[in-house]
Design a protein that fits this description.
Length: 725
C-alpha cells in the first residue's frame, strides 16, 4: 500500500452512526473491488496501460493538409484516410456551424477555419447547409486573418493566405549561439521541435496550387489580397513587443532584398538538426505537430516518400491514428451524422508511461499486493522505459546524468519531470528491490533533482526555460513557448520526495516550498498548468505538501482546503471547464475570482477534489463523503443510471447547446466515463481528454478515502484505550 499522504490531524474526528458507517464502507469496498478488477483487465502488451489522448479537429485537418502538401493524397490509401477524417470533422461540428477546442467550449476561429478548409479539400460543397453555417460564422469573426499564427502559416503553405500575413521566422536562427539570450534552447522542447522545421518551411515559402473550387477565398470578408497584418500591429515605443514588430518589418525587408546571409548553410544545419532529432522509431518529440512539420520540411528539401527517414516518420504518424472512435467528443446534436462508412482521427500523442504509472499507484492504494503479476509486469516495464541517453535538456544541465522518463512509447530526447516523479512513486510499489532496480531509482531521482529551477520550482522538461521576453515574439501569439516552474509539477515532485523520506528541512524541498507559497492565490487555490485547472493544481500541491509532512493547521493548507470545499457542486462532485483559464492566470488579481465558475461534475475532477480533502486532513468531512458518494453513483455498474446510453448535454459559455450521443453500457463497465476535457496542453489554445483519467483517478480517490478512514479509526481506538488505561 502507498505511503500515507494525509496530514496527521484530529480536527475532523467526528463520530458517525455505526450502522450507516458500516454500510457506507461496504459500498466503498465493493466499488473499489469492481473498479480494480476492470482496470486489471485493461492491461496490455508488456505490462502497460494506455488510453486514448483526444484533442480537437485541428490535427485532423492538418493531417489532410499534410497529405496534400507532400503529394501523398495521390495515393488511394491517403484519399481514403481523408474521407474518414472528414467524416469525423463533420461530426464534430456544432449547430451554430463552429468547431471548438474542447467539449462544450465556445466556437473558435482557428479550428473552424481549418475544419472548413479540410472539408473543402475532401469535396464538401460550399453550398451545403453545414458549410454555409460555418462560413457565415467565420466571416462574422473577421475571417482567416483573425486566426492564430500557426493556422495562418498552414494556410500560406496551402496557397490560401499571403505569406505577408505570417510573422518572419528567419532560418538564420540556427546560428544563434547557445550563450545568447535568443537561441532555440531558450524555448520549450515542444516549441523547439516544431519551430526548426517551420523555419525551413517559412524560408522556402513554397505554396501548393489547388483548384479554385478547393480554395477558401469565400471566407475572407472583403475581396482583397490580405495585407501584412503584422505591419499594422501597435505597441508602446519602448517595449519588447514594439522591438519585435520593428524586427519583423526589417527581416521581411532584408529577406526581400536578399540581404540575410548564410541562408543555404542555415538550411543545411536545420536539416541536420531535424534528422538528428528523429527517434529510431521515426517520431519527432513524440507529438503530432513536430512530426508533420518535420516531414514537410524534409519534403521541401527534396526527400522522397521512399526515403527510409520519410517512411519511418509516416509509420510513426500512423501509430497516432484512432479509427472508428464512437466515444470521442461527439457532434453537437448530429449536424452531419455520417458514421456509416467509418471515422478516423489523429491523436496529438500517446501516454503509456503516464497511464501505467498512475494505474500502478491506484492499484497499490487499492491494496493490490506488490507481488501481483500485473504490478510486477507494469513496474518491470516502467523500469525498462528509463531513458539513458542525453536529450536537449543537457544544454542547461551539462553535468547531469540521464535517468528520466517520457510520456510516450518513443521520445528519447525529451523526458519530463512529471512523468519521472510518478514513475518513481510507482516503482516504490513494485516487488523488485534488486541492485539494478535501486540503480534505476537513483538515476531517476537524481535527474529530477538536477532540473530544479532557480526559483525553486520545476518545469516539465528542462531547466530555466522561463524568459518572459519570448511571450512578446509575434510568432508566439498563443504564449505557449516557455516551460517555467508550475505549482502542479512542483507539487508532484514534492510528493515523490516525500515518498523517499525527504522532509521540509531539506534545502531542495525548502526552496520548492517557498515557490509554492509564492504561487498560492489569495483565496487558497493553485493554478494548474497541465490539468484543468485550479482543482488539478490545488490537488497536486496538497498531495505534495502532505507527503513532506505539512500539517493541516498550516494556513497555506487550510486556505487551500477551504477553497476546494467552496468549489464543490451541490451534487457532491467537482467540475471546472477550460474556460477558467481565460479568467485568471497564475497569481491573477483577486477581484476576478468570481469569474472562476463551477461546471458540471466530472469523474476525474471529483476524484481530485476528494484526494485534495484527504490530503488536507478532511477525510471525515461531509464534503469528502459527498464526493465519494458522487463517484459511487456514477460508476458504470450494470443497471445504474451511469450505465445507460443517454445523450450528454452541455451549455457552452456563449450559450450554445452542445450535445453528444451517449456511450453503450458496456463502455468502461465498472469504471467511469466522461466527455469533458480535463487535460491541458496549452492554456487557452489546446486541451485534451485523457480517456483513462476517468479510470484510475477515481480508483485512487476511493481507495485513498477508504484507507484514510481506516487509519483514523485505528488512531481513535488507540486514543480511547489510552484514556481508559
Amino acid at each position: 500500500m502507498l505511503q500515507e499522504t494525509s496530514f496527521a490531524s484530529r480536527q475532523d474526528a467526528s463520530d458517525e452512526s455505526g450502522e450507516t458507517d458500516t454500510r457506507h464502507r461496504a459500498l466503498v469496498d465493493a466499488s473499489v473491488d469492481r473498479a480494480v478488477a476492470a482496470l486489471l483487465k485493461k492491461q496490455e502488451g508488456k505490462g502497460w496501460w494506455v488510453g486514448e489522448d483526444e484533442s480537437n479537429c485541428t490535427l485532423d485537418s492538418e493531417y489532410i493538409f499534410f497529405f496534400h502538401y507532400t503529394g501523398l493524397i495521390e495515393k488511394p490509401q491517403y484519399r481514403d484516410k481523408m474521407r474518414r477524417l472528414a467524416n469525423r470533422i463533420r461530426n464534430q461540428q456544432r449547430h451554430d456551424g463552429t468547431w471548438a477546442i474542447y467539449f462544450a467550449g465556445p466556437g473558435e476561429i482557428s479550428v473552424s477555419v481549418e475544419s472548413y478548409f479540410a472539408l473543402k479539400l475532401a469535396g464538401d460543397s460550399p453550398d451545403a447547409p453545414h458549410m454555409q453555417k460555418a462560413r457565415e460564422w467565420i466571416r462574422s469573426k473577421g475571417g482567416p486573418l483573425k486566426a492564430r499564427v500557426l493556422t495562418r502559416i498552414q494556410l500560406a503553405l496551402m496557397g490560401q493566405m499571403d505569406w505577408r500575413a505570417c510573422p518572419a521566422l528567419p532560418i538564420q536562427l540556427m546560428f544563434a549561439p547557445k550563450a545568447s539570450r535568443f537561441n532555440i534552447y531558450e524555448i520549450s522542447y515542444w516549441a523547439r521541435v516544431c519551430t526548426v522545421p517551420l523555419a525551413v518551411l517559412c524560408d522556402y515559402r513554397r505554396s501548393i496550387t489547388l483548384p479554385t473550387e478547393k480554395g477558401i477565398s469565400e471566407l475572407y470578408p472583403a475581396e482583397s489580397v490580405p495585407v501584412d497584418i503584422v505591419a499594422r500591429e501597435r505597441a508602446d515605443v519602448f517595449s519588447w513587443k514594439n522591438f519585435f514588430i520593428q524586427s519583423d518589418r526589417f527581416l521581411k525587408w532584408a529577406d526581400k532584398a536578399k540581404l540575410l546571409p548564410f541562408r543555404h548553410r542555415a538550411l543545411k544545419r536545420a536539416e541536420r538538426w531535424i534528422r538528428k532529432h528523429q527517434d529510431a522509431s521515426g517520431d519527432w518529440g513524440g507529438i503530432f505537430p513536430a512530426m508533420v512539420n518535420s516531414l514537410m520540411a524534409l519534403h521541401v528539401r527534396g526527400l522522397s516518400h521512399e526515403d527510409p527517414v520519410f517512411k519511418k516518420g509516416l509509420e510513426a504518424l500512423e501509430r497516432f491514428e484512432v479509427p472508428d472512435s464512437s466515444h470521442s467528443i461527439g457532434s453537437s446534436t448530429g449536424v452531419n451524422p455520417q458514421n456509416g462508412d467509418g471515422e478516423l482521427h489523429i491523436g496529438p500523442c500517446v501516454s503509456p508511461v503516464w497511464d501505467t504509472a498512475w494505474s500502478v499507484l491506484a492499484l497499490s492504494e487499492a491494496s493490490v499486493p506488490h507481488e501481483h503479476a500485473a504490478i510486477r509486469r507494469a513496474t518491470d516495464w516502467l523500469a525498462s522505459m528509463q531513458i539513458r541517453r542525453r536529450g536537449d535538456w543537457r544544454y542547461k544541465c551539462p553535468g547531469l546524468q540521464p535517468g528520466g522518463w517520457a510520456f510516450q512509447f518513443y521520445n528519447d530526447r525529451y523526458p519530463d519531470t512529471d512523468d519521472a516523479s510518478v514513475v518513481l512513486m510507482a516503482l516504490l510499489n513494485g516487488p523488485d528491490s534488486s541492485h539494478e532496480r535501486k540503480a534505476v531509482f537513483k538515476r531517476g531521482i537524481n535527474w529530477v533533482l538536477g532540473l530544479q529551477n532557480a526559483d525553486g520550482g520545476w518545469g516539465a522538461f528542462e531547466r530555466d526555460v522561463d524568459d518572459d521576453i519570448y511571450n512578446e515574439i509575434l510568432y508566439n501569439d498563443e504564449k505557449n513557448m516557455l516551460d517555467p516552474s508550475t505549482a502542479d509539477v512542483t507539487g508532484r515532485i514534492l510528493e515523490c520526495l516525500g515518498y523517499c523520506g525527504i522532509g521540509p528541512d531539506d534545502p531542495v524541498v525548502a526552496r520548492a516550498l517557498a515557490f509554492i507559497r509564492r504561487e498560492q492565490e489569495p483565496d487558497g487555490k493553485w493554478w494548474g498548468r497541465w490539468g484543468v485547472n485550479y482543482i488539478y493544481g490545488t490537488w497536486s500541491v496538497l498531495r505534495g505538501l502532505a507527503a513532506v509532512g505539512f500539517q493541516a493547521s498550516d494556513p497555506m493548507v487550510s486556505r487551500a482546503a477551504d477553497w476546494v470545499e467552496s468549489f464543490q457542486n451541490e451534487d457532491g462532485g467537482w467540475g471546472e471547464t477550460c474556460e477558467t483559464y481565460r479568467a485568471l492566470g497564475p497569481n491573477g488579481p483577486a477581484h476576478l475570482a468570481h469569474q472562476i465558475k463551477k461546471a458540471q461534475s466530472t469523474a476525474s475532477q471529483t476524484a481530485w477534489g476528494v484526494l485534495a480533502l484527504i490530503a488536507a486532513g478532511r477525510v471525515r468531512r461531509e464534503s469528502a463523503r459527498r464526493g465519494v458518494e458522487w463517484l459511487m453513483e456514477h460508476q458504470r455498474v450494470a443497471g445504474s443510471p451511469a450505465s445507460a446510453t443517454e445523450v450528454v448535454r452541455r451549455t457552452a459559455p456563449d450559450g450554445t447547446i452542445y450535445t453528444a450521443p451517449g456511450v453503450p453500457p458496456e463502455m468502461n463497465r465498472d469504471l467511469w466515463f466522461e466527455r469533458d476535457f480535463t487535460g491541458t496542453g496549452f492554456p487557452n489554445a489546446f486541451y485534451l481528454r485523457y480517456h483513462y483519467y476517468a479510470v484510475y483517478f477515481p480508483i485512487l480517490a476511493l481507495a485513498a478515502y477508504r484507507n484514510a478512514l481506516a487509519r483514523g479509526n485505528r488512531s481513535a481506538k488507540r486514543e480511547t484505550a489510552a484514556v481508559a488505561t
